[in-house]
Amino acid sequence: MMLGCDFDFGSVLAEMSSTGVFAVDRRMNVVFWNRFMEVHSKLKTEEVLNQNLFRFFPELKEDWFAKKARSVMVLGNQSYTNWTQRPYLLHFPTSQYSVGEVKHMYQNCSMWPLRDGKGDVQGVCVSIYDVTEMAVAQLLLEEATEQVLLFEDSSNRDAMTGLYNRRYFFEQLNYDIGRCKRYEWPLAHAIVDVDNFKDINDTYGHPAGDELLIGICDRLQSCLRGSDTLCRFGGEEFALILPNLPAEAGFNVLERLRQSIYRAPFIIDGQEISASISMGGVIVDFDLPVKDVLSAADKALYQAKREGRNKVVMATEPALAMAAGA
Question: What is the rounded distance in angstroms from the CA atom of residue 286 to the CA atom of residue 234?
C-alpha cells in the first residue's frame, strides 16, 4: 500500500532519539543533525549546520571517512561498519550505566547516498546505532573464554620451562597416533635425559641447574618443527613426539638435537656449563599399546646411558618385541 504525502519523515528522523542520523554534503559540511546526535555530542543543530564535520570530531580520520563517503556517492550503494571493525565512528560517551568502566559508546554505522529532488547524489547520510551493551557482553564473554583457555593451558604447562607437561604429553601422543595412523604417516617418539644432571646441580647449584634446563629446552625447541611436541616428563627428563617423520630420518633428527646441546656450552651467571643429553627413540608401531611404545623408548635410553651417555639409540624391532612381552 502506498503511503500518502502527508507524513513528514524528515521531522520523524530529526526527533529520533534512539538512532543517530546525520548527513554531510560533498564538502563534508553537515546538512542534517537529529535529536540523538544533539544529545550524545552535546552539539545543537544550529552549531553544526553548514559546518565541516571534522571541526567538531578531530578524532575521526578524515582520509578514511572521506574515502568511504566518496565510494558511497560514486557507486550509489550502501556501506556498513560494525563495531568489531571500528569500535565507533564518532566518539560519544556511553549512555549505558550498566556496562561498568566503558568510556565510549560502541557503534554500528550505515552510510547511504543523499539525493536531491532530481535523484542526483549530493552527499551521504549516516546512521549510528548504540550497540554498547551487546558489544560489552561479547567482549566479556571473549575475555572469560580467554581466561578459561589460559587456565587450561597453564594446567598443561610446566611452570619452570614453559613446556607442556606429562599430562599433556599423553593426550598429544594419543592424538598424534590416531592422526598418523589415519593418514598413514610414520610417528617417532623419544625420551631425552640430561646426562649427569645431579653432578651439575652439586657443582653449580640448583638455580644454575634450573637455568641450564631452560637453556636446553630452548635449544631443542629451536631445532623442532611446529608440528613436533617437546614435553617435560619430570626432573631432567623430556619426551618428544615427532609426527610424519620418515623412519630412516628418525635417528638423524635425534642426532641433530643431541649435537645442538653438546656443540657449545651454556653461559649461566657468567659461567660456562657444558651439558649433553642421551636419547632413546622409537618409530611407533600402531598395533602396540602406548605403554609398550614408551617402554621400548625407555629401554633404548638406558642403553644409551650404559654405552657412555651423550648418545642416541633407536629401538629396534626386537626391542619392541621385548617391550611387548613377546
Answer: 25
Assess whether 236 carries a catalytic annotation. yes
pLDDT greater than 60 at residue 90: yes
Of the residues 236, 248, 255, 317, only one is catalytic, namely 236
pLDDT band at 318 (very low <50, low <70, confident <90, very high): very low
Reading the block at residue 137, the C-alpha cell is: 557482553
- The answer to whether the CB of 57 falls within 8 A of the CB of 24 is no
- Residue carrying C-alpha cell 646411558: 305
Residue 279 banded pLDDT, cuts 50, 70, 90: very high
Measured at the CA of 40, the angle between CA 36 and CA 41, to 5 degrees, comes to: 110
Cβ count within 10 A of residue 258: 20
pTM of the entire predicted model: 0.57
